[in-house]
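Bumping my old thread because nobody answered last time. Still need a sequence for this structure:
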């Protein structure tokens, strides 16, 4: 069986600073280290033959930007680790690396950390630029931001909040704890063990939400909707063809019911409404002359509402 091809990221810059004690305490280590080594890195690899990009990472702040014209994947970030002196801190951080492997249509970016520095090394941040037309799978922990990935997107986290902008195939998010915020035209399967879910669904598509927190779903259309809300606190439904105020559960089918929206909120409040587009800005003209345009008709004891032409049935003589 052929082995995956590997490419490790070369260091691009490094820095050394005091303050390792705070990092050590944050990692649950004895606060005895006085030096922190930092290493910035960047790399690029071709995406020839890759159908799915997998990111298997330690806890980090991750951003992924998709671009339909890309034929390669770029990444850059910062490693931090600890040492008893400046030389050991730098030596330790230089041993941390990200490795790119390709195998049978899968391109995988993963961390490779020696055992002796694994518990005192942090991937502070990672920025990835990839192809929007490839499927992406993320495994790890920490906050994730994704924009411009049109193909299948699957994010599975041990903890962390997620924000996704875009998507045309399917967006799947599962985090142990953290908030989820998604704007997409794709089908969405969103789950968090502790946190809120906000979804702006720009095209009719299947929706599943399972969380323990508040839920806000905005729909572009409620035609052919099959709405099933359960395990909820207060429920507010404000759609073009259905309105409801209640709590606990609510089931409603509109049209053929071919677009399922399934919500379980773990006692959280649920709001389902139409997408509210911002009103276009209008220029306000101010009349600075001596004539006031506001008129008050007191003939019949009625006051005309500014801006509205109301026919009250009365006729004023010349």
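Sorry it took so long. Here it is:
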């Amino acid at each position: 069986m052929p082995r995956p091809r590997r490419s490790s990221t070369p260091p691009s810059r490094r820095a050394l600073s005091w303050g390792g004690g705070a990092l050590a305490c944050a990692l649950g280590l004895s606060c005895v280290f006085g030096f922190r080594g930092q290493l910035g890195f960047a790399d690029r690899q071709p995406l020839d033959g890759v159908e799915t990009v997998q990111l298997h990472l330690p806890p980090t702040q991750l951003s992924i930007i998709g671009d339909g014209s890309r034929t390669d994947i770029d990444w850059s970030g910062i490693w931090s680790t600890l040492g008893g002196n400046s030389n050991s801190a730098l030596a330790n951080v230089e041993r941390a690396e990200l490795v790119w492997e390709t195998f049978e249509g899968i391109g995988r970016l993963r961390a490779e950390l020696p055992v002796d520095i694994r518990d005192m090394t942090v991937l502070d941040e990672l920025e990835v630029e990839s192809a929007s037309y490839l499927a992406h799978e993320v495994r790890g922990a920490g906050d994730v931001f994704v924009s411009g990935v049109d193909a299948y997107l699957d994010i599975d986290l041990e903890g962390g909040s997620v924000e996704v902008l875009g998507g045309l195939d399917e967006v799947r998010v599962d985090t142990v704890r953290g908030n989820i915020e998604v704007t997409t035209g794709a089908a969405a399967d969103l789950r968090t063990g502790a946190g809120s879910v906000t979804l702006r669904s720009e095209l009719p598509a299947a929706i599943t939400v399972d969380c323990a927190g508040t839920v806000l779903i905005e729909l572009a259309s409620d035609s052919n909707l099959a709405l099933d809300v359960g395990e909820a606190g207060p429920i507010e439904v404000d759609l073009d063809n259905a309105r409801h105020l209640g709590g606990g559960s609510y089931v409603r089918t509109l049209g053929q019911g071919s677009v399922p929206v399934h919500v379980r909120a773990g006692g959280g409040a649920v709001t389902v409404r139409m997408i509210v587009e911002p009103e276009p800005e209008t220029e306000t003209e101010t009349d600075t002359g001596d004539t006031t345009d506001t008129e008050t008709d007191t003939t019949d004891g009625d006051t005309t509402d500014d801006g509205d032409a109301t026919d009250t049935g009365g006729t004023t003589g010349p």
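The chain is about 5% helix and 50% strand. Let me know if any region looks off to you.
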